[in-house]
Amino acid sequence: MLSPAKMKFRKQFKGRTTGIASRGHRLSFGSFGLKAMEPARVSAAQIEAARRAITRCMRRVGKVWIRVFPDLPISRKPAEVRMGSGKGGVEYWACRVYPGTILFEMDGVDADVANRAFALASAKLPVLTKIITRGA
Hints:
three-stranded antiparallel sheet
C-alpha cells in the first residue's frame, strides 16, 4: 500500500476538509477520470482496492494514473486504554480529498470499459464520485 517513505513529524493534527479543490481538479494525463464530489479522507487501503478493481476490469490494457497520495498519518489509541498518556500510534495513512479532486485517470481503453472500471472503483471508495471525460 502507499505510504510516505519519510516524514518530518510522525503525527499530525486532524485538519479540515472544507472548500473545493483548487489543485488536481482537471484531467492531466488520461482521457477518462474519476472525480470526487464530496469531501472525505480516503485511506491507502481504499485507494489500493480501487486501483485493483480498475486494473482487473481493464484486463491490463491501457494505462491508469493515481492522482492522490496518502500522506496524512491517522493515529488511534488501542481499545480499552485509559485516558491520557499521549496520542496513539499511527494506524494507517490517508489523504484529504476535496470536492472536485480527480482520484484516478485512465487512457488507452474505450468508453464502456472505462465506465465499468470506474463504477467498480467507486464502490470501493467512501466518496460520491463522477466519471468525467476529456471532451466534457
